[in-house]
Input
Amino acid sequence: KTLELIDKLILKNDYNEMERKLRYSLHWLAESTKPDTNKSKFAKISFALETLLGGEPKQDEELKVRGITAMLAERAAFIACRSLEDRLEIDKDIRIYYKMRSSIVHGGEGEATLEDIDKFGELVRRLALALLEKLDELGNKIRDVNELERWVKKQKYS
Output
């Protein structure tokens, strides 16, 4: 089923915002597999994550308080997982990788091993496929970042 959804996405002519974000995210994920420094590969994977799940809903004052890392971790946990244990694990992993990303991007001092790159890349690939399946499952209910954020809040409080 996943391959059918990928084909459907690739062959589509008219994309909503979330589908466009998914396509750009896959682009960055592919870029991270090309020859480059470990830091650059890791940064490209973080670009893929941010493109996939990032973006501020219009007039979201809460994001300023809780931060981008928390937003990405929360969205990832609800997109990819059904159980509390899995959600907590995804949340923890996103926070670890995003801290590494900040160290690399902002200070240039951080390091990324090939194992970090592989694990982070696999996580973002898993999230991309989960989002693709979620978009299909929910029909046309998540077309943009605002609808994604509303959906996540509904999951969180239901």
Remarks:
- The mean pLDDT is 90.
- The radius of gyration is 15 Å.
